[in-house]
Write a sequence for this structure.
């Protein structure tokens, strides 16, 4: 595999990790911030586009990789072109399934006070 493709994959993965960390940080801010659970649920709904940002970054990365291939800056590789999209899909799935869903459940069913 061409080294420029490996660098491209690393950049795409790094971008998705950054988006993931931003999303998790925002969820923590909402959960630990002021307000009742209903307000926090509405704030989570309001951030839905942020939680989908990995998909947008993934699509942009795929388009960028294809353009870089066409102009000859990186070697033609479908792996490099579509890896960004794949990383985006996986990142958003992790954020929404494991984090957003869990936070919504915690807000809807708060722990019992003893």
């Amino acid at each position: 595999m061409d080294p420029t493709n490996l660098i491209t994959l690393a950049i795409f993965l790094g971008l998705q990790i950054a988006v993931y960390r931003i999303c998790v940080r925002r969820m923590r801010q909402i959960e630990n911030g002021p307000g009742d659970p209903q307000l926090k649920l509405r704030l989570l709904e309001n951030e839905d586009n942020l939680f989908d940002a990995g998909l947008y970054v993934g699509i942009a990365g795929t388009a960028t990789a294809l353009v870089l291939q066409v102009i000859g800056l990186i070697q033609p590789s479908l792996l490099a072109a579509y890896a960004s999209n794949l990383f985006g899909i996986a990142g958003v799935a992790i954020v929404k399934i494991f984090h957003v869903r869990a936070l919504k459940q915690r807000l809807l069913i708060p722990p019992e006070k003893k």
Remarks:
- The mean pLDDT is 91.
- The chain has one domain: 3-108.
